[in-house]
Amino acid sequence: MSDASETFDIEFRHVVKRYGTVAAVNGLDFKVRRGSFHSFLGSSGCGKTTTLRMIAGFEQPSAGEVLLAGRPVAGIPAHQRAVNMVFQSYALFPHLSVLDNIAYGLRYRQPRPDKAGQRRLAEEALEMVRLSGFGQRKPHELSGGQQQRVALARALVNKPTVLLLDEPLAALDRKLRKEMQSELLRLQREVGITFVLVTHDQEEALSMSDSISVMQDGRILQNASPEQLYETPASRYVADFIGESNLFDGTVRRIEDGRVLLETAQGLQLASPQTPSGPALRAAEAGCIAVRPELITIGAGSETLAREVSLPGEVVDRIYLGNLTEYRVRTESFGIVCVRVPRHGLAERSAFEHGAPVRIGWDQASGLAMTL
Description:
This protein is of the alpha+beta class and 372 residues long. The protein has helices at residues 48-56, 98-103, 115-128, 144-156, 174-191, 202-208, 226-231, 236-241, and strands at residues 8-19, 22-33, 37-41, 63-68, 71-72, 83-86, 162-166, 194-199, 211-216, 219-224, 246-256, 259-263, 269-273, 286-291, 297-300, 309-320, 324-331, 335-342, 357-362, 368-370.
């Protein structure tokens, strides 16, 4: 679908945010489609939280333009924007009941509902997050997951155009985090408004988002769907940050028949297709070939693998992960190579223990060539 036929709730046009001489955000151009779930993903200091704060109105850009629902919002303060934010700390008022916490923002709504209307809207929001009956409790009487739901209800009660989520699940344990991911997805589908999440957790972003912006040093390296990011990363950084990849660096020798011939520092050659998402590679440039661990086959050292690349090696680590087993294999040619085997993949053979001689292999088409 083209931009002309889509509606966007958020748009950044050449946005820069400087703090002194430091550019926290440097030339951002992106759009977030109305009614979608978008994530900003990156390590600490990449600019994702600064980007969120400019959407919210807590920060103003040093240059460029921010648009919400198609309208420029330069100079419009946070409380006048149709945007609400859920913080990592939840920021609930400890002296107020759950219901009063949720209704608090309704006092500033125009036109402001009367007290009965505020209570009704707060109770509807509480029901939306499946906490009916908890309205008279204080925040300290709730679990972490329940407090998170109250924070969500408070943010949603004013029916914002965009809901901003600043690492809202970071303080929760793994099991509760998974439950809240499902809850966030359910809520987003039910209310139909645009959700924007900031996170450093790639699994969280992949599992919930319609689109993801991967950021580094104040720039967006790739803006794409979770499937595109995982299957066709634009660069070495994205391939390494999204999931796990075996990364073989080298120099591009030539490009022919749609394949990039890369020579490693050890003089070994690999030929794989170039990623369609990144800049074009050229001969004599530095490049990288990335191969996902699940695309590599492993067998006993005496086996012959019908793969274009076939290497002997030794298991230096075996990690059991329940649904799969991960092997770290030391090879003479490529150093340590990671291999992941689903549980059913070893059903008819013994698992390879530490120190076992093995053979690993993959087809050249399983890799992707990309820039560093």
